[in-house]
Design a protein that fits this description.
heterodimer; A: 229 residues; Rossmann fold; 6 helices; globular; B: 472 residues; Alpha-Beta Plaits; Dna Ligase, domain 1; elongated
């Protein structure tokens, strides 16, 4: 038996977790040191799909991408927002020093158009980042997108609902996002290339609303008295 | 001065043949549709002759392609010929219905002699698959007569031209019927004999007009010609004998038209960003397709791929009888090479325009938007969308002056249905809009809901609570 195992290991037919090599895939730093560390010191993979899975907006999901958007838009790369569920608020983006000339919003009517647009954006050399809200996608369609992403060398982040965590997906990186205490963001690695899943980290992003938890809340006056409720 | 006359014996046939259909034999019938006016060589081989009744022609060739002569169409086609001719000669005069006159004397030095100029024109005619009879004359009328009787020779010698004209029989000299009869009664049979008559006699015996014509042919009377001016737009049309039912069938003529456009733009040293394609149907309204590119473009392939995308989205609603391509907007061509401020080279710029044009062609012009902040206190009016356009100006960083705002703004305020878990900052009073009737009077707070979402909520004048954005 041990001889059999020995042969298998000798032939390198069994992948061994404890001596994995550092991946050398191209990547863009996320801008958050804690998250970069969890991603093998690299960041968002380029030329591959990334998925962010979450329940509801407003937990800091865009703030996670802001450093990347800043850097790419100032480098003259185009950032596409494909079918965003709400309006990306221009004054807030401008405040974050994102070059709005490089931000393009696209709305598509049906899923065919969506996939076609996403593929075209991913293959183009002018694209830096594509953020997309695809809704329901079949595994086959995710695969198609993954192939398109491999054809280019851009970062592509899909925002999907959290219950897709249980479904497997060909995306290279899958993150589960949850709100943390103190307005932070808890990132749970569901899948990543070249390493084990299951790492967690927590990002302090309360600055997105100019909050810092050392201070007391700055509400001048309780907006509604308890008696009124 | 030396004039070159091009006579197109069957221009309409050539035009239709170029539209790329494989119809074996073609004839042009007169307006009423009874008589054959022109027949293509294939039809002539099968026994169809000009002047034959249409019934006879159809019984000779059952699958005959029939085209009705149409005067405005012929005028248009003739103008198309003038357009390419303009690249070789400056002074062009249209001679309807099927002639083109060009002043060639001044071109001798450019082309290196008359024979070289003659050859150049011949090559172009061959390339464009046009049948034309050429004639050179020292006057416009002489050139026309020689060309129409296909007696053209490459010579600039006036005596030789007059000698050629002199051999012309009177029937071919294009006098009106009355003059022709009178000349015949005088016992004259060739144009040369008419030239020999003393002018005073001719004016008295025939008519002053006849004398004027003769003198204009000979060159002893001035015959001024107003030069034709090329239009400031590009226009091409393809007409089909049989209606085209599938968009695939349109690609062959389209490819030819777009290459013409590419050539034309090259000559103008200009680009365009808007094509108008009009598809005429036998019945019903024509279909107009506006093809836009997001940047200046001149390549036929780029246009063709955009058009094919458009046809995929929008199938033909009826068979197409003719296809017209018009370009009215011309843009100056950018100087290639060099790097701009952001260090982008031409390739990336081009890739950007290609991508945007493709997306716009498939999704429609309104699907792509760019965002910009706007000067207004009211959150829903503090931003605007605009059409996509490439701009390379540096970012204006006014970041610090802008107030803290959420990254997501809801399409409209949503009622707040639960009591938030925690309150952070507030109130921030936003009041304004009295000047345009869209009054807003709100107190904004940042609050965290029980689900952990950070919301931008407000209370309005009527004490209602709403969510207006998410700190995403």
């Amino acid at each position: 038996m041990s001889e059999l195992l020995h042969t298998l290991i000798q032939d390198a037919r069994v992948w061994q977790g404890h001596k994995h090599n550092k991946t050398t895939q191209p990547a863009e730093p996320t801008g958050y040191q804690a998250l970069d560390n969890q991603l093998g010191g690299l960041g968002w993979p380029r030329g591959a799909l990334s998925e962010c899975l979450m329940d509801a907006p407003g937990i800091g999901e865009l703030t996670l991408l802001v450093p990347l958007m800043q850097r790419l838009s100032q480098d003259g790369k185009t950032v596409f927002w494909l079918n965003p569920p709400y309006t990306p608020y221009a004054p807030a983006l401008a405040r974050e020093c994102i070059n709005l000339d490089q931000v393009i919003m696209i709305h598509t009517d049906d899923k065919d158009d969506f996939l076609w647009t996403l593929e075209n954006c991913l293959r183009s050399p002018v694209t830096g980042l594509v953020i997309a809200w695809p809704g329901k996608l079949a595994a086959r369609e995710v695969r198609r997108l993954q192939l398109a992403a491999e054809a280019g060398s851009n970062v592509c982040v899909l925002f999907r609902e959290r219950h897709y965590v249980k479904q497997n997906s060909p995306a290279a990186l899958r993150l589960e996002l949850e709100p943390d205490h103190q307005q932070g963001l808890k990132v749970n690695m569901v899948k990543r290339r070249g390493s084990w899943p299951g790492q967690r980290c927590s990002l302090a992003i309360a600055h997105r609303a100019s909050l810092s938890h050392h201070e007391a809340p700055r509400v001048v006056q309780g907006p509604w008295p308890e008696a009124a409720r | 001065m030396l004039w070159l006359h091009l006579h197109f014996p069957h221009l309409l046939l050539d035009h239709i043949r170029r539209s790329g259909e494989n119809v074996a034999a073609l004839v042009i019938v007169e307006g009423s549709g009874q008589k054959v006016i022109q027949a293509c060589p294939a039809a002539r081989d099968l026994g169809v002759k000009a002047g034959m009744r249409l019934k006879t022609a159809v019984s000779l060739v059952p699958d005959l392609g029939i085209v009705r002569a149409d005067q405005p169409q012929e005028a248009r086609i003739l103008e198309d010929q003038a357009l390419w001719m303009y690249r070789y000669a400056a002074h062009i005069v249209l001679v309807p219905p099927n002639g083109l006159l060009a002043e060639i004397g001044s071109l001798q030095r450019l082309y290196g002699g008359l024979p070289a100029a003659w050859r150049t024109i011949e090559e172009v005619l061959h390339e464009r698959q046009l049948t034309a009879w050429m004639g050179i004359g020292h006057t416009p009328l002489a050139a026309g007569l020689i060309a129409r009787n296909s007696m053209g020779e490459c010579t600039s010698d006036t005596a030789q031209i007059l000698q050629t004209l002199g051999r012309l029989p009177l029937q071919a000299a294009e006098f009106d019927a009355r003059t022709s009869t009178r000349l015949k009664r005088l016992g004259l049979s060739t144009l040369g004999e008419v030239f020999g008559l003393p002018p005073a006699e001719m004016a008295r015996r025939l008519s002053p007009e006849t004398l004027a014509t003769i003198q204009k042919i000979q060159g002893s009377r001035a015959d001024p010609q107003a030069p034709w001016q090329p239009p400031h737009h590009f226009r091409q049309q393809a007409d089909f004998v049989q209606d085209i039912e599938h968009s695939q069938g349109l690609f062959f003529p389209l490819h030819r038209m777009l290459s013409e456009l590419e050539n034309d733009l090259c000559w103008r040293q200009q680009d365009t960003d808007c094509l108008l394609l009009v598809l005429q149907h036998r019945h019903g309204e024509p279909t107009c397709l506006r093809i836009r590119t997001s940047g200046p473009e001149h390549r036929a392939e780029a246009f063709l791929s955009l058009i094919s995308l458009r046809f995929e989205q929008q199938p033909l609603k009826a068979p197409v009888a003719s296809l017209r391509l018009t370009v009215k907007r011309f843009l100056g061509r950018e100087v290639p090479g060099g790097q701009d401020l952001l260090g982008e080279n031409q390739d990336l710029n081009e890739a950007w325009h290609t991508l945007m044009s493709r997306l716009q062609a498939r999704l429609g012009d309104n699907a792509l938007k760019q965002l910009a902040p706007k000067d207004d206190h009211r959150p829903e009016r503090a931003w605007s969308t605009s059409d996509v356009r490439r701009s390379n100006r540096a970012t204006i960083t006014t970041a610090c002056q802008l107030p803290r705002r959420p990254l997501w703004l809801l399409q409209g305020p949503q009622p707040l249905t639960e009591s938030p878990k925690a309150w952070f900052t507030g109130p921030e009073r936003i009041s304004g809009g009295w000047w345009d009737g869209q009054r807003v009077h709100r107190d904004y707070y940042i609050a965290q809901l029980n689900s952990g979402q950070l919301a931008w909520v407000f209370r309005d004048m009527r004490e209602g609570w709403f969510i207006h954005g998410w700190f995403g």
